[in-house]
Amino acid sequence: MKKIIVLVAVFGFAAAWQGNAAEAKEVYARDCVKCHGEDGKGQTKMGQKVGVKDFTDAKVQADLKDETMAKSIKEGLKDSDGKVKMKAYGETVTDEEIKGLVKMVRAFKK
């Protein structure tokens, strides 16, 4: 009986993780791709306009902290003049989706 419970828990966790990854992918496609691009390089018209970072660059990845990325997604980013560079998504994206987005950004590293 214990083995069955463990197996159910493992499969449940795996299904939940797959769901979170799929949700993050949908959020990225909906909210992030227009600036960061499908490949994470930021070579879109809007990405170049606001100067987004190339998430495939190992140095950029090394300089990014997961907590900083999560905060940026939640609260947005402003330039030194206070102009919005990236809007805040804290009202429309869950904490689990944010964790998934951070994992997606990490996966762009080459």
What is the succession of H and E elements?
HHHHEEH
Low-confidence stretches: 6-19
CATH topology annotation:
Cytochrome Bc1 Complex, Chain D, domain 2
Q: On the 0-100 scale, what is the average pLDDT? A: 86
Percentage beta strand: under 5%
Q: Roughly how many Å apart are the termini?
A: 44 Å
Overall number of strands = 2
Question: Strand pairing plus helix content: what structural class?
Answer: mainly alpha
Per DSSP, the total helix count is 5
Report Rg: 16 Å
Write the layout of secondary structure elements.
Elements: H1 2-36, H2 45-50, H3 58-63, H4 66-75, E1 77-78, E2 84-86, H5 95-107
Helix pairs in contact: 1-5, 4-5
What does this protein structure show overall?
The chain is mainly alpha-helical. It has a single domain (2-107), classed as Cytochrome c-like domain (Cytochrome Bc1 Complex, Chain D, domain 2, Orthogonal Bundle). Helices cover 64% and strands 5% of the residues. It contains five helices and two strands. It has helices at 2-36, 45-50, 58-63, 66-75, 95-107; strands at residues 77-78, 84-86. Strands 1-2 form a two-stranded antiparallel ribbon. A hairpin with a 5-residue loop joins strand 1 and strand 2 (84-86). The chain is globular, with a radius of gyration of 16 Å. Residues 6-19 have low confidence and may be disordered.
